[in-house]
Amino acid sequence: MIGDTRVAALLAGMLGFMSSMPPPKLQPPRVGIPWRTSAEETTVNLAKTKNYQDAVRAAGGEPVLLSLQRPQELQELLASLDAFVLPGSPADVAPAEYGEVNRGKSEPPDSQRENTDRAILKHAFSEKKPVLAICYGCQLLNVYLGGTLIQDLREETDTPIAHTRHDIVPEPKDDPVHAATFEEPSRLAKIAGTVEAPVNSSHHQAVERVGKGLQVTAHAPDGTIEAVEWTGDSNWVVGVQWHPERMFGDAFSERLFRDFIAAASQARSPVAQNI
Questions:
Q1: Does residue 137 contact residue 239 with C-beta atoms inside 8 Å?
Q2: What pLDDT, on a 0 to 100 scale, did the predictor assign at position 16?
Q3: DSSP conformation class of 167
Q4: If I label 95, which of 21, 52, 102, 144 is the partner at 20 to 30 A Cα–Cα?
């Protein structure tokens, strides 16, 4: 009887000690970000890629830079990642990928970047992992899902709005800014907390025919598609034509990255959260 009492007291003490211990610290979601271009990876030019890394880190994620040149390594790494940012690029998606020919305004494609993004998207859709696709990334997302692109906004639409610094003479140092109007209800409208917000602009191409499973959720004043969202299932997949990673100090951009990281955290399995 006395022995039983001592055992009970010992167990109670152990339980009390364990309950007083802080819970294990969860690791931040690991977010894969491919290099913007093959040339930047070769020369280790992180100047613009760093903006994406910093934005993910500020929102509570752990950025993981993904090689464009080692596809086998990429395949082995994908399973350990929780979400993905597809960044912008000075390259354009090869028009042949959406059934068109280069009409003289499409920049040379970067096949290694295209192949990497496609491998990422295949995995992300299969495993229901969040994706934030930015500028070129948004266009590649649309083409991956069967959509098409406007190869040059100024030439094909005669828009009076400057969508890139090159549309302005003399060319300014900073990107032009215009309004984006959000469709209600949409994820972006909820994140913005309003139906309209200013966004920066640094692109000459844009979504034309929307890919399967995507819904247009933002427009520029000239009608240019500024954002798309995945509707095929509940997975968090958003494509934006602007560059929230370099809208420094902008509350909407910060909320967009935080919402993305929150989705990445929720998508993780209990086992992965404690690794």
A1: yes
A2: 57
A3: G
A4: 52
